[in-house]
Amino acid sequence: MNDKMFKKEMKNIIDYSIGFLEGAQVGKTQFLNNMGKLTTELLEAYIDSNARVNPKALHHIYEWYKVGSPDARLYNINYTISNLGLSFVSTMKQSTSVKDGSSVPFYNKAKIMEEGTPVTIKPKKASVLVFEDGGDTIFTKGKVVVANPGGTQVEGSFEKIVDSFFNRYFTQAFLKTSGVQAYLSNPVVYSRNLKAGKSSGRSKGMQVGYRWIANGGLR
Fold this sequence. Notes:
The protein has helices at about 5-55, 55-60, 110-115, 155-175, 180-185, 190, 195-200, 200-215, and strands spanning about 75-80, 85-90, 120, 130-135, 135-140, 145.
């Protein structure tokens, strides 16, 4: 046995392993960015499909009469990457469409209905307020308070559908069926490149580690 060659190869293998971990750490940001983009697309499609199935609960997060339409969403899903990992946050957008019987858009429609915020309606210029209620035309000089504009079925429904996505679909279905979970649990590329790492050391390890995590099994 060539003692010097053995020591050199062992040192290279150790350096290769260290380089693999370092490369994986560097590639983690790219992986999280890819995962963030894909997850956002999946979440938006998930919300849209559920809205089409249950429009009474989720109509408020779309422009009037366009429930489930991607180009009529009144919500934004954004993600951020930090030392803690990947975080998602949602914000509501202003509605620009006008409901039949109205003359102006419902200000903060999505946010107000989602949170169940009471709304006070009163005449702005005219002396009498006119509105429809149950098919009847109502005339009043006083203000009208709508305790829950969207109703109990609407209140909190956006939050619930987002929670169901991350707690059930994403963790129980997507990560498994997509192969991402299995890919990250078994870094076979490490052993496949071990022979090259024996001669190249740390540089090869960093290259392999980066490519492994940056790809992350996402297709």
